[in-house]
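Q: How do we represent a protein-ligand complex in a form that can be generated token by token?
A: Start from the inputs.
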Amino acid sequence: MKTYSFVLLVVFGLMLSACAPASVAGETDFSNQVIEAVATTGMVGDVVKNVGGQRVSVTTLMGPGVDPHLFKASEGDVRTLEEADVIFYSGLHLEAGLSGVLERIGDRLNVIAVTDGIDRSRLIAPPEFQGAYDPHVWFDVSIWMDTVAVVQGALTELDPQSATVYQANAERYLAELEELHNYVLTRAAELPPEKRILITAHDAFGYFGHVYGFEVGGLQGISTQSEASTSDVQAKADFIVEKQVRAIFIESSVPKRAVEALQAAVQARGFDVLIGGELFSDAMGDPGTPKGTYVGMVKHNIDTIVSALKGD
Ligand SMILES: [Zn+2]
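Then emit the structure tokens for the protein with zinc ion bound:
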């Protein structure tokens, strides 16, 4: 009987270890193997790639043009998530359709919200968003910089032997981001205050407006889960005519029909507003192009905004 129980215990133990996550901080030795990380959005993936360098292989779930508010994981995505050593997501309810999956996997795996490192006093809680924080924090580069330490901390915990590598990578990336923040400030300052009005497809630019000095307005709300109503379009059209706004903008991850409807409504009032270009709001551009990086995306946005609103 005793032997039988022992065998059962061993078998049960083996089963448990077979079900165990690929890695738990401190349990897997990564000194001779690359960490397999999964990131949800391109912006999160960019932080992980920069801090992880050659030590980390990053799979990004949401490619160009993918709307994180509406994204749902396919069976293949769930498998990718389950096989990862660590998962990084943006958080603050940005990935609303993934919360169930992340919660379930989070019991067994390292699942980390990069925005957890941001001081809550720097977050915006718009009244119309029912007390929750606006998740679009990457539009204020100085706030997004706070995600670097979260990623560095998580990678260092998994792989302490490479701590100095992650430290050096994080310092280099932070210096690049600081330069980027100053670039956006300098370019924004080229526009006189009355021209700093940014109208886009959805309310993604709250942090951008706050730190770089723009009045912002989106046709859809903070999340793209609610559609723009006809009265939203009419009210925005009146506003554009009143303020003589030169250009409005489409977003790569939101269908452009609502912005085109707004343009038509403005034109029906006898004022011509341009579509000033495409902005990368909640998704980056194509991988391998400058717009496929966070730095390139932010530069593209401010360059497009300034040149369209300036009128040159
Ligand atoms: Zn959004």
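Residues 69, 136, 202, 204, 282 surround zinc ion (CB under 6 Å). The radius of gyration is 22 Å.
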